[in-house]
Predict the 3D structure of the following.
Amino acid sequence: MVENYDLLKVETSGHGNAVTVGNEQVDAKLTSVQVLQGNVTATATVNGTAAPEDYRKSLGTPLYMTTQAVGNYGAGTTTDGKLVANTQQYVDAVNVHADTQVNSPNNSIYESGEINTVAVTNHQAYQVTNGRLESTAHQQSDAEARARTGVVLHYSPSPNLYTASAMNNYYASNSTDRGSQEHTVTQDASGRTESYVSANAGNAWHMATQSDAAANTVTLYNTGGSLVTDTRQANGGQVQSMSVLSGYEYGEMHSTATGVGNSLTAGNGDKYVNINTEQFNDGPIDVQASFEGHTGYDAYVTAEATGNSAYAYACAECEADMTVRNSQVNNANVTASTTTTIGGSGRAIVSTSRAIGNTATYYVSGNGKN
């Protein structure tokens, strides 16, 4: 139980398996197999102590909380060298859950802070600096990935952000200097992916909730040199994302939820990009965002649900050479909905819902950025 007039910071993490590697000014080979057969749970709870008549007592000035649950974790760095990697990650039908809860109906937060809850069953990421990466990766998850954030406050006169993010399979690579990358990635998810965030305040000046759920995610970026990727993503599990926000008196409120079955993002600040991608989604996508208030000013509510998403770009000023082979199949229901309820008076209400079965965007730009 907490009553605090200074910084309150809580960090909680749980990992099943973890491998971290690196090579600098030498070439290296990596072979890694990770298997998870048990549950991974990370839980953090903060309880406020103020009585109803003492609602101005501070819970945290500011409040920061991070809760992470990761099944299989892999990370690699290569600098001034070459890394050839072969990684395999498997997760049985277990639970990978991260939960953060703030129970403080009679306390206040006076400075800006954040609460972030993350659950990932398989995680593999690389950092390339003036080198070359050749990676073959297979990720398979039958697990339930669940991230939940819950917040109850009385008074918040500063901007605060509350998020929940759940992913079954996550693969990423980034280059901040010249290098070349070649990736062959296979991702299969059959378990449920759920993210849920709920925040309630009696009086909130500026508050935002963000819920993100993705069964399979591949994110690649290269600053210079070539980027080649061959990816296959398949999801058969349900993806659910919910953002619930309420404030009796409010200033500016944002409630946002996104959910996707398969997602690929690939960008190169240089000219050469070669992409071969296949995406299959058979799992239902359900995304909901809501806001409820009584008296206030502005409310923004957004829900976006996608079966398969592919997005890539290259540098036009570099005389871009982009080759794309894209295949997307969605066989499941994709649903996005928003609900906004104002009991008294408000000023602006912006509510947006978008549901897309398949979306693909490939383009060249002047500086390699959107």
